[in-house]
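Re: the request from the purification team.
They wanted to know what the chain is likely to look like in 3D before they choose a buffer screen. I agreed to run a prediction and write the result into the notebook, where they can find it.
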Amino acid sequence: MTLSTNLSENISVLHRLLPVDVSFDLVTRDLFLGETPAYWIGVNGFCKTEVLQQIFSDLQNPLFTRDGQIENLIAFMNAKIGFAQVEAEADWDKLIKSLLSGPSLLFVEGFDQALVIDARTYPTRGVAEPDAERITKGARDGFVETLLFNANLIRRRVRSPELTFAMHSLGSASRTDVAVAYLGGSVNKELLNALNHKLDSLQITSLTMGSKSLEELLVPHRCWNPLPAVQYTERPDVACSYLMEGHILLLVDNSPLVMILPCTIFQFTQCAEDYYKTPLVGSYFRLVRLACIPVSLFLMPLFLLITTRYPQLAAQWQLLSTDSPGPVQMTFYVLAVEFILDLFKYAASLSSGRFSGSLAIVGGLLIGDIAVSLNWASTEVLFYGAVTLLASLSISSLEFADALRVYRIFLLAATAIGGVWGFGISMLLLFISVLTTPTFGGMSYFWPLYPWNGKALRTLLLRRPTYSAQPSKVWDRGPVHPSE
């Protein structure tokens, strides 16, 4: 539907499409540009008041606006409106979308086009360092909930003329802005085309939870695949490093999480802290972090298996300081400690920073001691549970660590029920679950193990010097399967 040349008709359509007289944040103004009637509408709080006041003051100044009647709207816009971001638009759908996104609209009598004045501003927080990805050295800025600010943080670091931010609008109700960021010379064109086609074909009402909702639409998860299929970051330096390696970034308005495509399991072993240390020190801590993965996953299930099914081995290896309790009691101890540790972890992460440290101390000393006294746990189980928790917290990706926790609970339950057979069968099912983890475009989740790339694998496992870590070209990650 297009505009009419009659201003009154356009105002009537505007009142029919929007709750102008009901919603308090829709602000309107009747104007005269010389002798020509005009009508302005904007969203209160989205408009830079000082800029609009200057524009209206100039347009209504008789010394500035010498034309009694406006004959050509485009010429009038170019000659009289001294603001950078102004354009003419005739389509009602685009005008309403622009208005609700922040720009204001100016309708002029006698013209079937309206002027879109992009003098918008958004309430936002500061670009502070994200809590989940803190480092001891390096940049202290982080992505925020405003898409334009996030694009600026990336553009500031990557000043390549090939850097592109392609915009999409998703959701028939929310009309959320989603930007696809990539480097034209290094991006996988087949993967980029598949992503653009997928975004344009999504039939949804809104992105309720921002980036996470978009992830579930792009890569549908199955209940037996808890591993993350997409990597997120709130750090601009991390996002730019992946961008330079040929990855695609997805920026969703109202979300500080930037999505990185494609994704492999080895990306969750990386940490920005490694690159602010010397190569030797960074490699050491990366290997320690890799060792924490099997410790977090297998320590408690193996402890439960040995102490309940092979007590003679437990006594020989001195896994317990006292006589081994029965299998049922030991299983109860292990599951109770797992529940308590998870409870403390989430309580500490969701509570205020002023109380989280005290909560951890009180939980570790008071409740742990009382649990042993009441025979709800043993000292050895608390110890192995604490080591498991430390190993989980050492993994840089929270989503990956949470997936390992789900796998560990499954292994514990299967081991408690079936013993060695339960542990073996659960390991097989776990292996199948990992192998069938979905990725966008059907690309390999285990690159560079499959397809094999030895140089890339060494770069991922060890912190190599910058001059030797950069490939001469973007790594080939295998074929893209758009249908998957």
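For the purification team: Strands lie at 26-33, 36-43, 86-89, 104-108, 114-117, 163-170, 176-183, 231-233, 248-252, 258-261.
Please add any questions underneath this entry.
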